[in-house]
Amino acid sequence: MSRKKEKNKNKQTSHQQLQKGTLDIARSGIGYVVIADGTGDVLVRPGDFNTALHGDTVRVKVTKENLATGRKEGKITEVVSRRQNEFIGTIQLSTNFAFFIPDSEKPMPDLYIPLESLNGAKNKDKVIAKLVKWDKDNRKPIGEVINVLDAENINDMAMKELLAENGFPLSFSDDVMEESGRLPDAISSSEIKNRKDFREVLTFTIDPVDAKDFDDAISIRQVKKGLYEIGVHIADVSHYIEPDTKLDEEAYKRATSVYLPDRVNPMLPERISNELCSLRPHEEKLTFSAVFEINQKAEVKSSYLSKTIIHSNHRFTYEDVQETIEKKEGKYAEEILLLNDIAQKMRKQRLVKGAINFSSQEVRFKLDEKGKPISIVIKESKEAHQLIEELMLLANRTVAEHVFKIKVNKKEVPFPYRVHDTPDEQKLLPFIAFAKKYGHSFDTSSPEKIAASFNQMLADVHGKPEQHVLEQLGIRTMAKATYTTSNIGHYGLGFEHYCHFTSPIRRYPDVLVHRVLQSCLQGAPVMDKKMEEKCKHSSERERAAMECERAGNKYKQVEFMHDYLGDVFEGVVSGVASFGFWVETIEHKCEGLVPVTSLSEYDDFRLIEGDYSLVGRRSGRAFRMGDKVHIRVVAANLEKRQLDYEWVLREDVSKPKNTQHKKTEPKK
């Protein structure tokens, strides 16, 4: 073998030793690279991080491996991508330089801040700093202050900290803003000629009352007696955001908008999300549409997909439409009632075909001018929401079916399907045993039969005391929906083919779907070899956004309940563990923990896993998931986003408990 070949072979062998994964740094400072292919974690000591920070995607070289235990140690050779570039912390100012001390639970070095990069920050100011440069030549990472925070606005800091911790940038770079600013307002006549024109067709949007970005609109017109053309028109974001631009890179990095109780952290700059692409009333807008001919039985007789131009006649809120449905009068009442009738029939048909009908409740906060929650509203899915939901599901399914049929050299087109796997058997079997105690039986002979059993149980349990617990536990048996090029179908919806096409302003996979669909319609499907990687990234960012949103809601709930320390509420046991049980208040959906130590005066309680309960050894008293109980609020820790409750005997409910806390406001 020649020296050159031997050298290349050694290079190849060395490269094969490198593995890609995500760095997870423990509080002790030790790091573990979680390998993407699931082959096991690699332990990395702090001196071998090679500028990597918690959450970064890295390449690691395994230097030691114990074959008996499978334990691996290694060194990070490269930071592939940073999870987080912006951090919240405090400035420490000296005569010639400054340091940024991050408020991070995970160990990370201070940032060196040149004086010219302080952006007006003073000593001990709370700021947002950006990591600008850190390579092998710099012992300390170099940063710059991008925003000085108002130390008195604790709420604003808390929300920004949640976003930063989950890797969502708090601002757009100058390059991105400059690029979005250059996008033209006017729509050219040549662009209009290339699109189907819906400007004369009745079209409207239906969105939440506080929405600013309207990415879907509905059009309707009668074709002949008993047959209607219904258009689902989606903002044509891909017309404005082209691949390999700064805007596209930023949208991909974020992959999703994040919805917190008092703000939206958008995927795209407002110039695009709230202006150019938002389907505002009385404005011409470019759209990508799924158009259907549907009869009064809700049967789709024909459909097509096309780029379009629309002119929305009206902007409805869900509340407006719900009122029209209930009162059978109002603006465009005839069209809304017809659409609702078709949507309800479609919903019924979908459930018959195997979709699982889990009900959903959403917590919304009414905030004062300082962002403090003054009330909590429980939002439920009504017919107005279902009208939009059914039409969006139809459009998403139709697009996925269209692309799935297309083959290039007998190969499928790489496409970001939205998939949902069948339930996990290990989670399902204990649930089935638990449901049996309430008289519900499951047919497990096929996934379809399992879905039918779920729907039967949900129908039978509606309005009964055990409804909450069986719904919650049932949802926990379900797999998580993800994006992938492997089309295994969507179990929860009962669809063989499904994707996300209808929200490109707030979800990057929808932008990818639009691009692939357009290439297919043009007869030249894009065969993107990196599509699966893009799917994995989008799924990871979606999970991070959900965690962020959950934490934001929890923060607001703790902040709200702080004004009710010492007060008693009725709640439902929402979870059990060996160390206590969780209770969710019925009125506000605020969950807190009743620690088992607080029950010691009553009995010695032990966890019975199969029964989802804590049971007293002497008395046999049980706290089961779904049980109604009374609790007293004893602690509300904003920093930990944690509520502590204590169980109250029914006969003690009306007795006040002494507390040092003084309410700052009267109860709402």
If you had to describe this structure to a student in words, what would you say it looks like?
There is one protein chain. The protein is an alpha+beta fold. The protein has five domains: 18-81, OB fold (Dihydrolipoamide Acetyltransferase, E2P) (Beta Barrel); 90-151, OB fold (Dihydrolipoamide Acetyltransferase, E2P), CATH 2.40.50; 179-411 and 508-521, no CATH class; 422-478, no CATH class; 565-652, Nucleic acid-binding proteins (OB fold (Dihydrolipoamide Acetyltransferase, E2P)), CATH 2.40.50. Strands 11-18-17-14-13-12-19 form a seven-stranded mixed β-sheet. A five-stranded mixed beta barrel has the order 1-2-3-5-4. A hairpin with an 8-residue loop joins strand 7 and strand 8 (111-113). Helix 2 runs antiparallel to helix 15, helix 9 (333-352) crosses helix 10 (383-405) and helix 11 runs antiparallel to helix 13. It is globular, with a radius of gyration of 28 Å. The termini are far apart. The model is unreliable at 3-16 and 658-668 (pLDDT under 50).
